[in-house]
Amino acid sequence: MRVRSLAKRILMQLRNDKRTLALMLMAPLLILTLIYFVFEGMVTTVSIGVLNAPEKYVDNLYDQNTKPVRYLNEAEALGDLEKGELIAIVDMESGKITALVDGSNSTDASKALKAIEAAKIKNMVNRVDLNSDIRYIYGSEDLSQFDNFAAVLIGFLVFFLVFLISGISFIKERTTGTLEKMLSTPIKRWEIVTGYVLGFGLVNVLQSVIISVYVVYVLNVFMIGSIWLVLLITLLTAITALTLGMLMSTAANSEFQMIQFIPIIIVPQVFFAGLFQLSPSWEKIGHVMPLYYSADALKQVMLKGNGLIDILPDLAVLLFLSLLFMVVNTKLLKRYRSI
């Protein structure tokens, strides 16, 4: 009898909590649908730039499930390689192949090199003195899978943990009455938001240092860029997650409701942060997600050795989003007090 009463009470609570009920029923369908479309939209072929090569060799590349693209000059091809539109550039002179490879993604680089060699053998160019000259523009030949995704994982872990902890902490300020007490004083809403950002921001600085140093120097992840830029990107990622977590906590009524935002806000970003090679149309969706810019900046610094100028657009977007979340959060605090 008591068991039945308890079960009935739980069901009644779930029925009254529409948000929890909807999340339990709809969130798995949302995530599965997203996974379906992401995997359906994944690019399975790699693009290889061709400078000088006979048409028969280019046809052989097609047969190896690659997409060869003809270029008239090396500068244009290198530009597309830098932008990630190509995995390799092939130049054939007197039967000898010189390949410039983007090794920042070891899986795609390996696929491209196998196709280049297979197309050469099929073209009956197999003399010892004509062995291919492979040069890595980014990355290296022995780049591991963890090296490939370390930049994305750093951004994700920082974003996820800061979002969750800051959001729950801000809710506790409300549920314990601390926020209401502050709002009863002459303090302004923007001062409350800024104060929390600065307070958590100091902890985020320490967190960024620990994570970055551990990954680079303890786990010995491949990195050719500046550790200071990695620290800067990680810190801005944490600030963006902090301000977004505070914003979401303002809309939540409990710690449990804050956790409910994870499958809606955090999980979708993982698919568009660079872990999967998506078609251009799907990649555009990632441009509205903060984690995309964090992962892109980290990959440019760690795998390609780019400097501050190269990652400024990504940093600018993260900074803009942080300020936007702070402004919106300040506006939402009107629900607790009109100032």
UniProtKB/TrEMBL annotation:
Family annotation (Pfam families): ABC2_membrane_3
Alphabetized GO MF terms: ABC-type transporter activity
Entry keywords, A to Z: Cell membrane, Membrane, Transmembrane, Transmembrane helix, Transport
InterPro entries (alphabetical): ABC-2_transporter_component, ABC2_TM, ABC2_TM_bact-type
Subcellular location: Cell membrane
ABC transmembrane type-2 domain segment(s): 110-336
Sequence intervals crossing the membrane: 21-39, 149-171, 192-217, 223-247, 259-279, 311-328
Similarity field: Belongs to the ABC-2 integral membrane protein family.
Protein name: ABC transporter permease
